[in-house]
Q: What sequence folds into this?
């Protein structure tokens, strides 16, 4: 069935502290101003409602992503723009999402590890370096960067505002408000 | 924020074999014909995407309902009518859903146990009686009927078509197509 539809999954991948949620917040606000239906499925929200049982092993991370993907698919096919700021370190899992969700764009928030670690807004890198947190992406757990993301946001070179505008432009190019 | 919205969660509770999914199928088709956004979150669909890890203990059943509720809330607030045909045997958990989801209606598919067992479409009652399935609602696990459902469907007295029409009328009275 061919039908104009406005749903789009925008999958923000990148290290902890890269700026994924900050960019999402700006994008969400701008899209709401423009009349879009928007949801943000960030890790904390989803963990409370959907994935409280999961840890940080590869299997648990994969299950986490699959559950988020399930919800994202349901929302996007009902014309919602879904912003997903989750580290999602494994390329295969992101590719699985791309294959499953009809309307999908990957945004690589490519802030280098050194910058993320210097910011360390939540103090997590310090704890990870001290061994107080295990399986921390970029420290003792892998991160596989996207090979062909629809967009790369370089928060270490551009302002948050510029990144937000880039993402909003991407979304506008892929959707049309009914 | 006051806003016209068309989302509604319609929670179908009742025993296995009561006719929840059959009614949902008819309602879904009719609503689509009328131009509604609709999703059906039935047990099988949700189990694959969201709750594969869960069994039938009370704790697991509660987690199952909470995850379905999380998704239902996201969809209804984006103007989707969400049909949820799940046994959901515990009153407290259904009341929790009612409290969390802005727009909610409970449909009690009240087919008596004897009728469900006689139908036994999936052969599950036979297995439960033989002890091959444990924790089967109505046999060796409790079912707590709703006290004040928005609607009761008596599939043992009315036709499926009548039940479908009743549910569709309920939904129309609670929503407005934009």
A:
């Amino acid at each position: 069935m061919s039908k104009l539809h406005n749903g789009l999954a925008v999958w923000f991948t990148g290290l902890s502290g890269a700026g994924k949620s900050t960019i999402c917040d700006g994008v969400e606000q701008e899209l709401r101003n423009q009349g879009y239906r928007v949801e943000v499925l960030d890790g904390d929200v989803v963990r409370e409602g959907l994935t409280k049982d999961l840890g940080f092993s590869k299997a648990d991370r994969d299950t986490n992503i699959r559950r988020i993907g399930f919800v994202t698919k349901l929302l996007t096919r009902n014309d919602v723009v879904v912003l997903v700021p989750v580290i999602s370190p494994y390329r295969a899992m992101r590719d699985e999402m791309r294959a499953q969700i009809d309307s999908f764009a990957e945004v690589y928030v490519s802030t280098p590890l050194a910058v993320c670690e210097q910011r360390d807004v939540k103090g997590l890198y310090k704890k990870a370096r001290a061994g107080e947190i295990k399986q921390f992406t970029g420290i003792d757990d892998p991160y596989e960067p996207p090979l062909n993301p629809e967009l790369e946001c370089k928060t270490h070179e551009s302002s948050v505002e510029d990144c937000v505008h880039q993402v909003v432009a991407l979304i506008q190019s892929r959707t049309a408000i009914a």
